[in-house]
Amino acid sequence: MIALIDVGNTYFKYVLVDADTKPSFDVGYTAVKHNDVNEQLLSTILKDATTVVYASVSNKVLLSTVTTYCQQNSIACIHVETSAEALGVKNAYTDFSKLGVDRWLALIAAKHYFPDQSCMIVDAGTATTIDIINSQGVHLGGWILPGLDTMVNALLQHTDKIEAEIEYPQQVAFGQNTQGCVNNGVVAATLGGIEKAYQKLDNQDTKLVITGGYGELLSSQLTIDSILEPMLVFKGLYQFKD
Description:
Blueprint: E1 2-7, E2 11-17, E3 30-33, H1 39-45, E4 51-56, H2 60-72, E5 76-79, E6 85-86, E7 89-90, H3 101-113, E8 119-124, E9 127-133, E10 139-146, H4 148-158, H5 178-199, E11 207-211, H6 215-219, E12 227-228, H7 232-238
């Protein structure tokens, strides 16, 4: 088995795939909080693994925990990091190391699963990121927006009278109370950012690919046709298995 591990800003996410057959990625992933990751959990996750492919946007302690466990148990461990160029994709950043590895993996996956096509990739998590890749595999740059929860928390922390629980709408409307205004407002702002980015594209045949924890919520409310790919980052990790 191959264990694909993606450590984001909030969650440690993993999926197990068969080493001998091309995975369908239909099973989805499992997510646990960073603080819940320990040797006991790893022994359960990795008991049948021969290879671990790992990427992390921030947590060096978890990286050390995983690599140490793999070394102690003779499991091959591949640590994927952002590079200037890999697997047919060229990074737009002058300092390539500053591009988050989750964004890099999404670009790698888009190049592999949508070959010879331009893509705009939206990853909706703690941050909502937007990245453009052309049909030749050249990353053209992107935007970073606060994620939905991040926007709500910023409002609650920096205002005295706004109080709201997170309850995002399945269809944006005008709120009739503060909570409704906040929840509808942050979704509307994010949808507007995505659609504005798409309007700026030179190629209006670009595929819009949505991933991340809030991908489904956003995808269903866009006026632009989109492809929901909740496993996009894992599909990118899988390309590094060899």
